[in-house]
Amino acid sequence: MSSKLYVGNLPYSVNDASLHQNFSEYGTVTSARVMTDRDDGRSKGFGFVEMGSPAEAQAAINGLHGHTVDGRALVVNVARPKEDRGTGGGGGGYRPRY
């Protein structure tokens, strides 16, 4: 099991420091990051926490999954690797005129 966790359904009031603090009750937190919108800097409502060991990560899942923060039930599970979106199709390419 990985020690990197996905944390979803976060209230917009949660920041990196408070996320770190909540998870530190279950072991060593090596990183905690709330994902934000690149344009306005607002929280996207989810984040990632990396725990010191898989056992600590499992303890955090058991302790915080479904726990209510500011009226919202947290979703905590093992983070999956980012899916490759590929180059995609789409238009917008240059087309010379003859």
From TrEMBL:
SUPFAM superfamilies: RNA-binding domain, RBD. The keyword Plastid does not apply. It comes from the Bacteria. Residues 3-81 form the RRM domain. CDD domains: RRM2_NsCP33_like (cd21608). InterPro entries: Nucleotide-bd_a/b_plait_sf (IPR012677), RBD_domain_sf (IPR035979), RRM2_NsCP33-like (IPR048289), RRM_dom (IPR000504), SLIRP/GR-RBP-like (IPR052462). The keyword RNA-binding applies. Keywords: RNA-binding. It holds the Pfam family RRM_1. Gene3D superfamilies: 3.30.70.330. This is RNA-binding protein. It comes from Ideonella paludis.
